[in-house]
Amino acid sequence: MGHGSRLLGLVVAMAACGGCGNLPGKPAPDAVSVDPDHVLDFSSLYGQNCVGCHGTEGKGGPSIPLGDPVYLAIVDDDVLRKVISRGVHGTPMPAFAQSSGGMLTEEQIAAIVKGIRQHWAKTDALRGITPPSYAPLAGFAAGDASRGATVYATYCSSCHGPDGKGGPKGSSIVDGSFLALASDQGLRTIVIVGRSDLGAPDWRGNVPGRPMSPQDVSDVVAWLASQRPKFPGQPYPGDVGAKGGLP
């Protein structure tokens, strides 16, 4: 092959390689995957870790609606961080922080907390009203289950039935499976915040013009907690197998 032919072949080869960047299997410059620990986008983090329990836009899931402005008005960022990081023992809420065995960094948890607040909190959610405290305050009387039964009859029975097993407007709130998976703090939060996404009012709306007092909240939570089964997961008393029931 002459010198001219060799030069022409080299030019052709170089031209052909001009498209090598699009060869199958070679990633484009913008297609390089991001280290999971470096993902800080709130939508991505919430969608991957929170939406299954807390619902799209923070509402409609089986757990407390993070998108409820009333909830965000009674809970501060420190509580949100702790719950996300450590989870809630005895409930379906797992620990997400890497330091607690989860998958998220402290920066990612901070991004979730900030995003929740930016997307769904409203500064005027309570318009100057002081709600019952998120957690029971030290120095106040502890909740009393016997008083709580009266509080329940006054504020809750019209929706959930006289014994809490369900009524015309609400489901059972003494179901053993539900109570076994709900912490006392979770019950308190629901009593205060309600479930606006499910039509359940907050502490102000159960009886028109008569909001629940902080003591009412503590007492009805004590009554609900007293209905919790001692041994969750054992719905049948005694040895039903010996009586011809299921083994």
Secondary-structure-based class equals: mainly alpha
User: Which sequence of SSEs, written as H and E, runs from N to C?
Assistant: HHHHHHHHHHH
Distance between the termini: 90 Å
The CATH architecture name of the domain at 39-120 reads Orthogonal Bundle
* Strand runs, count: 0
What is the rounded Rg?
A: 28 Å
CATH class of the domain at 39-120: Mainly Alpha
For the residues shown, what is the average pLDDT? 86
CATH topology of the domain at 39-120: Cytochrome Bc1 Complex, Chain D, domain 2
Strand content: under 5%
The quaternary state of the protein chains shown equals single chain
- Helix-residue proportion: 40-55%
Q: So how many helices?
A: 11
Shape: elongated
The CATH homologous superfamily of the domain at 39-120 is termed Cytochrome c-like domain
Low-confidence stretches: 239-247
The biggest beta sheet, please? none
